[in-house]
UniProtKB/TrEMBL annotation:
It comes from the Bacteria. Residues 43-157 form the Pyridoxamine 5'-phosphate oxidase N-terminal domain. It holds the Pfam family PNPOx_N. Pathway: Cofactor metabolism; pyridoxal 5'-phosphate salvage; pyridoxal 5'-phosphate from pyridoxamine 5'-phosphate: step 1/1; Cofactor metabolism; pyridoxal 5'-phosphate salvage; pyridoxal 5'-phosphate from pyridoxine 5'-phosphate: step 1/1. Catalyzes the oxidation of either pyridoxine 5'-phosphate (PNP) or pyridoxamine 5'-phosphate (PMP) into pyridoxal 5'-phosphate (PLP). Coiled coil: none annotated. It comes from Flavobacterium urumqiense. NCBIfam families: pdxH, PRK05679.1. This is Pyridoxine/pyridoxamine 5'-phosphate oxidase. GO terms for molecular function: FMN binding; pyridoxamine phosphate oxidase activity.
Length: 214
C-alpha cells in the first residue's frame, strides 16, 4: 500500500469572481483557453476528457483533442464505429472536461453530441497529414487486433494503394458537435475554498449563473 495523503498543494494563481465574467460560458472558455495557452506549460491545451455511458452501462472516459469551438459548441473527431462512437449513438448525453494544471483551472461541460455535417468533417479530414488520413482508414478503432505487426502491415499496403492518390474521408469517420447545457468553471484557491461558477442553459437562450460551494 502507498499512502498519498501527504500530496498537497496550495492553489494561489488566480481567482474567479462574478464581477469579472461574461454572460455566456463560451466567451469565458475562450478567455481561459488563450490565457492558459499564453501562460505556457500545457503542451496540448486542447486535450480534454470525453466521458460517455458505454453500451455495457458503465461510464468510460478517454482523452481526445478539441478541434474547434464556437457559439454552437465543441467539436472533436473520431471513428463513429469506435466504442465512444457507438456509446454516443446510443446515449448522446456526454461530458467534456479540461484540466489546466499550470493555471490551476478545470472546466466541466455537460452537453448533447450530434454528428457534424459531412462538409465539416470533409474539410477537417482534408487538412490532416497524409499519415493521419491513412491511420483513420487502417484502424478499426476499439476492435481487437492480433498484433502491432498486423496494423503496420496493413498501413504499408494502404501507403502503396494510395500513393499519389487523394485519400477520401471514410464514411465511418467524422466529427461530433457537443452543444453544452451546463458548463462549470473551477479555479483553485487557497485553503481549498475554490471558486466554482456554473452556467446552466435556459429556454430563452440565456444562461443562469450560480456560484457553487467548493
Amino acid at each position: 500500500m502507498e499512502d498519498l495523503s501527504h500530496y498537497r498543494k496550495s492553489y494561489e494563481k488566480s481567482e474567479l469572481l462574478e464581477s469579472n465574467i461574461p454572460e455566456d460560458p463560451i466567451n469565458l472558455f475562450n478567455r481561459w483557453f488563450h490565457e492558459v495557452e499564453d501562460f505556457g506549460g500545457n503542451e496540448e491545451v486542447n486535450a480534454m476528457t470525453v466521458g460517455t455511458i458505454g453500451l455495457d452501462g458503465f461510464p468510460r472516459s478517454r482523452v481526445v483533442l478539441l478541434k474547434k469551438f464556437t457559439e454552437e459548441g465543441f467539436i472533436f473527431y473520431t471513428n463513429y464505429n469506435s466504442e465512444k462512437g457507438k456509446a454516443i449513438a446510443q446515449n448522446p448525453k456526454i461530458c467534456l472536461s479540461f484540466f489546466w494544471h499550470t493555471m490551476e483551472r478545470q472546466v466541466i461541460i455537460k452537453g448533447v453530441a450530434r454528428k457534424t455535417a459531412a462538409a465539416i468533417s470533409n474539410n477537417y479530414f482534408e487538412s490532416r497529414p497524409h499519415g493521419s488520413k491513412l491511420g483513420a482508414i487502417v484502424s478499426n478503432q476499439s476492435e481487437v487486433v492480433p498484433s502491432r505487426a498486423f496494423l503496420e502491415e496493413n498501413l504499408k499496403q494502404l501507403e502503396n494503394d494510395y500513393e499519389g492518390i487523394v485519400i477520401p474521408r471514410p464514411e465511418h469517420w467524422g466529427g461530433f458537435l457537443v452543444t453544452p447545457v451546463e458548463v462549470e468553471f473551477w479555479q483553485g484557491r487557497p485553503n481549498r475554498l475554490h471558486d466554482r461558477i456554473r452556467y446552466t442553459s435556459q429556454e430563452n437562450f440565456t444562461w443562469k449563473i450560480e456560484r457553487l460551494s467548493p
